[in-house]
Amino acid sequence: MKNHSNFFLVVSCILAFTFLFKNVNAQQTLVNTKHLDHLYEEINIDGNKLGIVHIYCEYPDYNWVDDSDEGIACVDDVSRAAIFYMNYSSRVNDAASNEKAKKLIEFVLHMQSENGFFYNFIFPDFSINKTHQNSIAEPNWWSWRALLSLTEAYAHFKDADKEFSARVESAIRKTIAAAKKHFLYEKRIVDLNGFNRPAWLPFQYASDQAALIVTALCKYNFLFEDNSVLNLINDFCEGILLMQEGNDNEFPFYAFMSWENSWHAWGNSQSYSLLCAYEITGNKKYLASALNEINYFYKYLLKEKFLNEFAVKKEIGKTVLDSEKKFAQIAYGITPMIYAVLKAAELTKDKKYPLFAAEIAEWFFGKNPADAKIYFEQTGICYDGIINEKEINKNSGAESTIEALLSLLAIEGNVEASCTLKKIIEGKK
User: Which domains does the chain show, CATH number per domain?
Assistant: First the structure.
């Protein structure tokens, strides 16, 4: 009887999943674009219509809020939003989301500098902020996120709009050329307080940023079959592997350090990037190392109800905890885990991973240190973070909103993960 019950549960999930994305509405899906649509604005620059996403939105009225130093919108968030709208429009065949995605990519194109990299912010008058340290056109987070969004855009629009795709391709190749010129390095391994660290990653030790670059380059290589980037992919992956610490039984259980000898949750997508690189190169070391972090360190994070950051040190030759902060906890720290686990499910076909992804996604629905719901499927609002066990930041800006939507859209792309999470949520009502 038990086997029959499991069989019917799986069949029911598959049928529900099939129906879900043929007949999408607010009651059937956790993905609600309402709040992101509210953050979206269409602007006119030199006669061209561009899409932006306002960076901040504050409780309780959820009106747009600007940053006096940086601006009103940035490539970092717009790139994320474009990727979400492209994936969402493909999933549900939504023309309005597809058009938003295109206008957001137009904004990304507008922000590219002559040097191939990207400015990040625009001011309220829509002029580009070219001087703030978080907006300079340089090889930094926003430029790599722009590159990733452009590779996704090329794949998404190449058949439907060849003129637009040609402009996207030109921008991609310009950034790739700039990256090749920038990353001229000697592969040196240095001793950093007892740890062997690669000195050829971005800013020497930034494996978190290297992971984003690897992900973008893998997508580029897949689309354009340009093997000239394989050396950079492999060198960065080799560096990322050197940032992994611990083992099955010893802290930090195969975690990839983000920078030097410290780890932080936000944007720590090394496992996902290694799995993408494994697809391109077939290097089994990448697969094994990623699965080790997923199987051991991610489990540890769930046991601890997640962490914000920690640092390690050497003590009599052993890696031990030096310092730790549990908060703040934000959506940007959850999405990389969900993406990695679902990628592991795709590559290994192991049924434990969809269930694990759903378990991680419960963070959005109350399985967190504050026992508080963070994402609301009725509105699409995702709170900006958990400050401590008793305090929630109820603002809902671009980053939190988009990261939540990316996570849940990915979950709903896997039948087992989707059914498991929705069953858990239903049980809490």
Answer: 31-428 (1.50.10.10)
